[in-house]
Amino acid sequence: MGRVANQLLASILVNSIYEMKNYPVVLVNTVLSPLSFLILIFFVSDGKLLGDAIEGGLIMTMFSSGTSLQSDLSHYKNDFKLQDIVVGSPTIPGVYVAGMAISELLYSSPAIAILIVLFGLFVHATPLQVLGIAAVMVLMFLTSVSLGFALASISADIVQSYAYTRLLSTVFSTLPPVYYPITLIPLPFRYLAYLSPTTYASEIAQNLAGLLQLSSTMFAIDWVILLGLSAVFLWIGVRHARWREK
Amino acid sequence: MSATAGELRCEGLGKVYPNGKKALGSVSFSIPTNGIFALIGRNGAGKTTLTRILSTILEPSYGKATIDGLDVMADATRLRERMAVVPQEGRTISWTTPTQMIGSYLMWRGLGYEESRAKAREAIAQVGLEKHADKLNSTLSGGMKRKVLVAMVIASDAELVFLDEPSTGLDPISRQELWNILTELGKKRFLFLTTHYLEEAEQIADRIGILNGGNLVALGTLPELRSKLQYTYSLKAPRGTALPTIQGESVTRRDGQVQIMTTEDEALAISKGLIERKTQFSVNPVTLDDIFHYLVAQNESAGGRT
């Protein structure tokens, strides 16, 4: 394997594989977290919003990767001083963070696998629609990871980092209409939901799966805004994240 | 001064943190990049700041530092290929074993999985932890955890090793074991370490730097530092003790004692007087502890401490 692949693998081993291997109980939490909302929505809607909830679970899992990355990176930086150890080594920041981000996906892989199976069983979409939904998921992942890295690099304490995690999770995946259609939110509050990139992601995904009707103009606007917000968060991540301290 | 190979050089290096705190004044010095260099100083003296700048973790506010002719700012990428760092308060990752943690570190340095594990096991054996190689780090004692971090740099092929207070918090036996390991390591690589233990610097360092209030007060080998004083004996007595007029020098240490640096003959004469008056005192040949207290007190009385 190449040098960069070894460096990526180091982050993946430390941040997910060794943790799961040495403490398998952590897997239960990663599975339960996105599924718990799905089950709740399923019961409350009498099964009518199962498709929305499955897609919501996938979006939340992707977005949670970034919020988890934020707290993990902060934990390594502030508690273990691992970032100092790695900064003073041949690893470059992009590779370190990419490895950590992939490890978050790997960590969530049991939940992702279950959600994909449920998606295959209960959401009927063409390969092209699936491709569109996959693109939305990738954008969600990149957005959250960028935000997570930027916040981790400026957080000075794990308590501050946990606060960021809870804030991001609430603002971007619990409050916005991720597990259900936006039409269920009364109109004055609907505008607030549009402040979150996850709202656009879920609208696009729900539309692609035939769960929400959107005009082609609205669909295009959603894509433009989602891509724009993702680009902004990526810019924030790259621009404001700190590797060597100032 | 021009940067050359085989040398660590700082020229007017300083650091002012964004909150306005000046951690390092204008520090200039040059040392060879071989053997063990120990930086000693009180809490807040600037040891960690200097170490972090030199190990490319922190940007200086002004000045320049080069290691083997490579600038710590401009050539950081090249330097990082050759260095390994164990930061102050660096900790082992609790959910990994020593083999897993050291192996991962070596992979971050670019080695393959199998090679990393093999090298990790070798290094773990070198620090005497082979029986604990596959136990979780969370189950190891504090001394063992510090040894795991040192094994990490041993396992790497880094020629420049930065260790920030590697022995802090260890019991005397673990500390001595660690010093033995570091002494061996220092025969093959350049070790830049900081410590609060003057005994550590005295025992293992080839060269010693004394930092106080962000300024370098002294630098040299132990004999060179001793020779700076021109005195061979140190006599300490409680503050307020009536002392005769002396030819040597006297300073009040931060621990409240009066310290007299003097010659053997005068130390003997003062001692006789103090014994006759039944005054408590101690007298001994000059140690690093004496040099440190003396130079720090002298620097502070000259307004060196910020």
Q: Would you kindly provide a written description of the structure presented here, covering whatever features stand out?
A:
With 246 residues, chain A is mostly helical. Chain A has 11 helices and no strands. In chain A, helix 2 (26-44) packs parallel to helix 6, helix 3 packs antiparallel against helix 8 and helix 3 (50-80) runs antiparallel to helix 10 (197-208). Chain A is globular. The two termini of chain A are 34 Å apart. Chain B has 2 domains: 7-96 and 157-220, P-loop containing nucleotide triphosphate hydrolases (Rossmann fold, 3-Layer(aba) Sandwich); 226-301, Alpha-Beta Plaits (2-Layer Sandwich). Chain B is built from 10 helices and 14 strands. Chain B has helices spanning 47-54, 76-82, 98-108, 113-126, 142-155, 172-188, 198-204, 222-229, 264-276, 288-301; strands at 7-16, 22-32, 36-41, 62-67, 70-71, 83-86, 160-164, 190-195, 207-212, 215-220, 233-238, 249-252, 257-262, 282-285. In chain B, the strands form 3 sheets. Chain B has a 6-stranded mixed sheet, with helices on both faces. In chain B, strands 2-1-4-5 form a 4-stranded antiparallel sheet, covered by helices on one side. In chain B, a hairpin with a 2-residue loop joins strand 4 (62-67) and strand 5 (70-71). In chain B, helix 5 packs parallel to helix 6. The mean pLDDT of chain B is 89. Chain A binds chain B through residues 1, 3, 6-7, 9-11, 13-14, 18-19, 22-23, 76, 79-82, 84-92, 96, 244-246, and chain B through 18, 52, 55-59, 76-77, 80-81, 83-93, 95-97, 100-101, 103-105, 107-113, 116, 136, 152, 162.
